[in-house]
C-alpha cells in the first residue's frame, strides 16, 4: 500500500497540478481556461462556472492539505477574483458559463454551478480567511437549500404532476458539501443536515430488492419504470458511497460505513465490463437500451472515484474484496487514462479503452476529479492510516 | 439501378412497414409505441410526439404514393386520433412527450414536434380530406412560422445578446415542410417561402471558404469559434441537400440542384470514416474535440438519408461520383444497419459498425427515416425516372 500511496502523491504533485498551473490560467481576463488539448494547449476559451469553482477549490484544498505552495494559493485567488466579479446574476445564482472576458453566455439553469462555487469559497476561506469569501460561500449554500426542491425553475421541461421524479445528484453532493463547509456552517448544522441527506441516499434512492441505487425515483422512493427511472450511473453511486463512508466516520456510525462499502462493491461488480474491462457510464436496471448513446464509454471520473471508494472501503472496514478490486481498477485506470507522453489524464475512452476525445480538459472535465482522487487515495493509504 | 430499385421497394413493403404495423400500435390507449426492442417487443411505453407525427405521416404517405392498403390508412387514422385528442397544450403547441394514456409528460419545448405534426395532418388530409385535418395542419404551420425566431421561448438557456447564434435545423425542415404542405398552403405561399429558406441554407449556413454547412452561425452567417459554432453534422447537411435538390426541381433551378449536389458530395467525402467506413455523427470544423460524446457513432438516419441524396444527385444531375458513392454507402448500410434476423433496421452502431443499442425504435428512432428513404430511393431509381 505504501508504494501505491507514493505513486499517487507523486502523480499529483509532479504531473497533474503542474499541468493546470502551466496551462489553464487566463492572465489577460482572469479565471481559467479548461478546454485544453492533449498537450495542454487551449482549444476553446469559454468559461464553465462548475469548472472555475472546482479549480479554485482544488488549489485551495491542496494548499491547505498538501503543501503551502505560494503558486497554488495565487491560482486559487486568481480564479476566485474572476468568479466573484462575473459569476452571478442579480439574485446571486451562478451562471452556467461565461465568455473568456466574463460576459454571461448560459443562464444559471444548473444548481451544480452553485454547489461548486460554495465549495470553492469555503475552501479558499480556510487558507485565506475573509468575510467576503465566507459571505459568498454561506449565501450560496443557503440559496442551494432554498432552491433544492425546484432547482430547475423555469428551465424545468417536465409537465407538473404527471411523473414527479426526484434526482439523486443533489442529495449526493450535499453529503460532501456539508462536510466541506463544516467550518462555516458549524457542527450543529452538519449534525442536523447529515441524517436528512443520508436518509435520502441510503433509503430513498437505494432499492433493497436490487441492492443498488437509482438516479431517479418516485417521490416515495419507489421504482419508476421509465427511461429516467431505470437509469443507473455506477460511477455516481460509487462516488456517493465514499461521501457516505466519510460522513459515517464523522458521525462514528460503523454500520453506515459498512453498508456504504457493501453497496459500493455491489455496484462495481454490476457496472464492470466483463468483456473489455472498465466501468460502464450508464446502465438500464432492466437491461433495456438506455437513452444515453454514450452508455458504454469509460470515463475518467468514474474510475478515479472508484479508486478512492476502494481505498477508503479497505482502510475503514478491512474488507479484502476492496483490496482485490483496488489492484484491478488501479491497473485498468493507470494503463488507459494516464497519458504516457503528455501531462494529465485522458477523460473519455470508448468501450474498448481507446481514447475517444483527445483532450485533457473540456466543458465537463477540469482540475478536479483526477487531483482530488490522487490526493484521497494517497492520504487514505499512507502509513499512519492503516 | 433497376435491381437496386426493386431491392428498396421490397424491403419497404415486405419488411419495414409490416414491422411497425405489427408492433407499434397501442390498441388500448391509441397512438403508437415506438420503443421496440430488436424483435419488436415494447420496452417502454412513453409517447414522443415527434415520432407519433412521423408515423402518421409515413402511413398516410405510403397509402398515397405506394398502395391504397386499408391497414395503412387505418394506422394513420389511429395515430392522428390520439394526437388530436392529447397532443397539444392550450396554445396549440405540441407537447414533447406523453404517457401511454396521453397525459402530458414533457412540455412543448421543441418546435420539431410541431413540424412533424403539421406534416402528419397535411399528409393525412391528402388521403382522407377533412376540414379538421386541414385546420390542424395549417394552424400548426402558422404557429411554427410565428415562433420560428424564438422557438425555445422560456426554455432558452442562452443569455440574451452575448452570442446570438442561429440554428440550421428549422430552416432545413421548412424546406421540406413547405413542399409537403403545398396542397394546403398553395403554390403562391411556397413560391414566397422557398427563396427565404433556400437563402438561409445555401448562403447563411453555407461557408464558402470550406465549402461546407455549419449547424450554428452568427446572425450574419459568419463563423463563431465556439463549440456550437464549430459543430458539423454531415448527415444533417446531406439530408438538407436532397430537400434543396427537390426544391430546385420544383423551381426549375438547375444551378441550385447542381450546387446542392456538390455540397452533398463534399460533405460526404469530409464525413466519411476512412478507417472503419460509415459516416461520422458529429465533427468539429477545426478538428477540435466535440462536446458530443457520441461523435464517432454511426447512425441509421445519416446513412439512409445519404442514399436518398446520392440517388437523387445521380438521377437529377448524372454526376458519376454519386453513382460510385451510392454503391459504397449502400454496401455499408445494408451490411451494418439491416438486421438479418429480425425485422426493421438497427439505429445506433459504434465507430466500428457494431450494434451499440439493441433496438429498432426508441425515443428518437421511429417509423420514419428507414421507410421514407427506402421509398425515395426506389422511386428515384425506378425505370421511368432515369
From TrEMBL, chains A, B:
Annotated GO MF terms: isomerase activity
Q: Does the keyword Cell membrane apply?
A: no
Q: Name one GO biological process term.
A: carbohydrate metabolic process
Which keywords has UniProt assigned to this entry? Answer: Isomerase
Domain of life according to the entry: Bacteria
- Note the Gene3D superfamilies from the entry: 1.50.10.10
For the keyword Isomerase, the answer is: yes
Pfam name, any one: GlcNAc_2-epim
Write down the InterPro entries for this protein, in alphabetical order.
6-hairpin_glycosidase_sf (IPR008928), 6hp_glycosidase-like_sf (IPR012341), AGE/CE (IPR010819), AGE_dom (IPR034116)
The family annotation for this protein states: Belongs to the N-acylglucosamine 2-epimerase family.
Q: What is this protein called?
A: AGE family epimerase/isomerase
Q: What organism is recorded for this protein?
A: Filimonas effusa
Ranked from the top, the taxonomy reads: Bacteria, Pseudomonadati, Bacteroidota, Chitinophagia, Chitinophagales
Amino acid at each position: 500500500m505504501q508504494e501505491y500511496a507514493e505513486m499517487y502523491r507523486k502523480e499529483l504533485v509532479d504531473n497533474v497540478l503542474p499541468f493546470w498551473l502551466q496551462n489553464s490560467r487566463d492572465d489577460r481576463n482572469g479565471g481559467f481556461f479548461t478546454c485544453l488539448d492533449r498537450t495542454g494547449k487551449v482549444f476553446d476559451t469559454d468559461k464553465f462556472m462548475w469548472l472555475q469553482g472546482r479549480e479554485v477549490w482544488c488549489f485551495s484544498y491542496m494548499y491547505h492539505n498538501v503543501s503551502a505552495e505560494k503558486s497554488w494559493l495565487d491560482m486559487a485567488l486568481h480564479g476566485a477574483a474572476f468568479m466573484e466579479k462575473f459569476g452571478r446574476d442579480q439574485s446571486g445564482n451562478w451562471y452556467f458559463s461565461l465568455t473568456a472576458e466574463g460576459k454571461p453566455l448560459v443562464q444559471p439553469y444548473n444548481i451544480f454551478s452553485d454547489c461548486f462555487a460554495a465549495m470553492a469559497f469555503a475552501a479558499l476561506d480556510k487558507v485565506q480567511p475573509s468575510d467576503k469569501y465566507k459571505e459568498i460561500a454561506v449565501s450560496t449554500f443557503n440559496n442551494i437549500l432554498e432552491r433544492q426542491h425546484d432547482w430547475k425553475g423555469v428551465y424545468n421541461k417536465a409537465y407538473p404532476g404527471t411523473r414527479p421524479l426526484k434526482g439523486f445528484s443533489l442529495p449526493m453532493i450535499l453529503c460532501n458539501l456539508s462536510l466541506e463547509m463544516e467550518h462555516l456552517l458549524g457542527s450543529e448544522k452538519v449534525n442536523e443536515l447529515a441524517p436528512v441527506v443520508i436518509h435520502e441516499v441510503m433509503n430513498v434512492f437505494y432499492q433493497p430488492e436490487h441492492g443498488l441505487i437509482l438516479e431517479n425515483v418516485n417521490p416515495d422512493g419507489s421504482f419508476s419504470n421509465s427511461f429516467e427511472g431505470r437509469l443507473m450511473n455506477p460511477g455516481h453511486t460509487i462516488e456517493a458511497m465514499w461521501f457516505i463512508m466519510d460522513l459515517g466516520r464523522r458521525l462514528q456510525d460503523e454500520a453506515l460505513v459498512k453498508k456504504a462499502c457493501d453497496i459500493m462493491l455491489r455496484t462495481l461488480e454490476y457496472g464492470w465490463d466483463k468483456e473489455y474491462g472498465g466501468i460502464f457510464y450508464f446502465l438500464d436496471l432492466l437491461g433495456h437500451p438506455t437513452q444515453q448513446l454514450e452508455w458504454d464509454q469509460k470515463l475518467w471520473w468514474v474510475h478515479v472515484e472508484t479508486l478512492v471508494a476502494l481505498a477508503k472501503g479497505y482502510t475503514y472496514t478491512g474488507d479484502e474484496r476492496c483490496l482485490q478490486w483496488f489492484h484491478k481498477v488501479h491497473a485498468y485506470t493507470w494503463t488507459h487514462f494516464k497519458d504516457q507522453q503528455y501531462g494529465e489524464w485522458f477523460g473519455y475512452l470508448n468501450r474498448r479503452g481507446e481514447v475517444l476525445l483527445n483532450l485533457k480538459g473540456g466543458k465537463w472535465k477540469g482540475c478536479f476529479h483526477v487531483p482530488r482522487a490522487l490526493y484521497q487515495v494517497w492520504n487514505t493509504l499512507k502509513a499512519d492510516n492503516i
